[in-house]
């Protein structure tokens, strides 16, 4: 990972970029999350650890 710096006066500050935030999860996304937590623990853990849980919940929320 390569960082670039911007000079302001006598100091160098790193130029940091952040990814866009995920949209808020609605009612059906939250219901799906609680279902996965209670009944499909392996799948829930897999989605959570790979970082795909929020994306999965957003897709479910948009379908309904």
Descriptive report:
- With 64 residues, this protein is of the alpha+beta class.
- The protein is built from three helices and two strands; from the N terminus they run ββααα.
- Strands 1-2 form a two-stranded antiparallel sheet.
- Strand 1 and strand 2 form a beta hairpin.
- Helix 1 crosses helix 2 and helix 1 packs across helix 3.
- The longest helix is centred in the middle third of the chain and has 13 residues.
Summary keywords:
alpha+beta, 53% helix, 64 residues, two-stranded antiparallel ribbon, 2 strands, 3 helices, elongated
Write a brief caption for the model.
This protein is α+β, with helices and mostly antiparallel strands. The chain has helices spanning 27-39, 41-50, 53-63, and strands at 5-8, 11-14.
Report low-confidence residues grouped into runs of 5 or more: none
Q: Please outline the major beta sheet.
A: 2 strands, antiparallel
Order of helices and strands: EEHHH
Quote the average pLDDT. Answer: 90
Compute the number of strand runs: 2
Per DSSP, the total helix count is 3
Q: Quaternary status of these chains? A: single chain
Shape: elongated
Strand content: 5-15%
Gyration radius, in Å:
18 Å
In angstroms, what separates the terminal alpha carbons? Answer: 40 Å
Structural class: alpha+beta
Give the strand order of the largest sheet, numbering strands 1, 2, ... along the chain.
1-2
What is the helix fraction of residues, given as a range? 40-55%
């Amino acid at each position: 990972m390569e960082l670039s710096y911007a000079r302001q006066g006598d100091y160098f500050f790193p130029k940091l970029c952040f990814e866009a935030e995920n949209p808020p999860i609605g009612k059906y996304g939250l219901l799906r999350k609680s279902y996965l937590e209670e009944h499909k623990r392996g799948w829930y853990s897999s989605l959570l650890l790979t970082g795909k849980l929020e994306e999965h919940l957003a897709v479910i929320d948009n379908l309904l």
